[in-house]
Amino acid sequence: MALMLKISGSKLAPAAIRTLRRRLLAWYEKSRRRLPWRETRDPYRIWVSEVMLQQTQVKTALPYYRRFIREFPTLRKLAEADLGDVLKRWEGLGYYARARNLHRAAGMLAAGSGGRVPDRWDEFRALPGVGDYIAAAVLSIAFDRPHAVADGNVKRVLARLLTMGDPVNQAASHKRFQAEADRLLDRRRPGDFNQALMELGALVCTPASPDCTLCPLIRCCAAHRGGAVASYPRRDASRPVPEAQIAVGVVFKNGRVLITQRPAQGLLGGLWEFPGGKLREGETPAAACVREIKEEVNLDVSIAEPLTQIRHAYSHLRIHLHVFRCRFTAGRVRLNGPVDHRWVRIAEIDRFAFPRANLKFIPLLKQRAAAGKAVRKGGRSA
Q1: How large is the average pLDDT for residues 33-50?
Q2: According to the model, what pLDDT value does residue 11 have?
Q3: Fewest Cβ atoms closer than 10 Å to its Cβ: which of 23, 36, 94, 361?
Q4: What is the signed CA dihedral for 121, 123, 124, 130, rounded to 10 degrees?
Q5: Using CA atoms, how far apart are residues 359 and 312, in angstroms rounded to an integer?
């Protein structure tokens, strides 16, 4: 450990830092990806991109960003939109609190500052969903404010560049990585420098098999010099992710199905779903489905057939979803947990935003509905 600290970033000389900045920015000018949020200085559009890129790869976020900006081209348009419409445009991207917070922040700015994105740290950082990373990224890129970012890509680059032994997946290490990012930041071009460091981590200094031959910083990289690139960054062992068994019922009544809306706050807040819940110990999925529907929406149902099984992973939980087709038998909807409900035709279901786990079996519902319609039509023709 003592050796590692000796050759860490605290020993990088000012002249070496100036050379690092020059080489990194020259590489970025030549090698950066052409992305839509890099073709604008509009702080709103840059903000949307940074929110989407949290926990999401560029190739996944890109089509969502284009659709979102097409639908909500300005902060005021986003503020005026219904939250349900915003969540629908976000559907499938995950981490829906990002969308809820962005919508809420847009409303606050439209009401209080005429739709202007603040260019000062304290004002912008105080908005819902704006943490240190988002504030530093948007303010540096849109307004050239001298704030350094320290996201996962940056931490990986710094860990190798400076042979930092701090575990990158521990919150306690963040302060040290942030201090090194602050020290290296080119304050004349903070936005470009931040993007260059992130781009280097995304394209060259990757988690597995980094291509050091393409790295503009190879000559000042302590890990490369010591033949220890594979040893960085350090990570503490992650805890095993638990799995939950969940039963879900697609309840049919008079040609419509029941969907319920989750509370606005919390995991998957504001999204629509089919009623259901976790299995109790020793309970069969079918029994759990009937019980959960009774407890959640006050309806008596019977199981018509198992529809499918779905496996889906969140960052903190894996779920095994047992999906059943259910017949309504009695009762009136009285909600216990959900905040709203609808009886909708399958053809109308795309109007509502659902969690990704539900999206995995909705195509099967559409397929079954189309097949049933074709059978009924053929019978009438005969």
Answers
A1: 97
A2: 62
A3: 36
A4: 100
A5: 11
The catalytic position among 50, 180, 273, 296 is 50
Reference 37, options 55, 49, 25; nearest CA is 49
CA 62 → CA 49, 59, 69, 154, 242, distances in Å? Answer: 9, 5, 11, 21, 31
Q: What is the pLDDT of residue 112?
A: 86
Q: What is the pLDDT of residues 47-71, one digit of tens each?
A: 999 999 998 899 999 999 999 999 9
Active site residue 29: no
Identify the burial level of 223 via C-beta atoms within 10 angstroms of its C-beta, where 0-12 means exposed, 13-18 middle and 19 or more buried: buried
Angle value at C-alpha 66, between 155 and 146, nearest 5 degrees: 40
Secondary structure (3-state) at 250: strand
Instruction: Say how far apart CA 99 and CA 97 lie, in whole Å.
Output: 5
Residue 179 neighbours by CB under 8 Å, 6+ apart: none
Q: Tell me: the pLDDT tens digits for 125-176?
A: 999 999 999 999 999 999 999 999 999 999 999 999 999 999 999 989 999 9
| 53 Cβ contact list (under 8 Å, min separation 6) | 61
Q: What is the pLDDT of residues 267-321, one digit of tens each?
A: 788 999 999 999 999 999 999 999 999 999 999 999 999 999 999 988 788 999 9
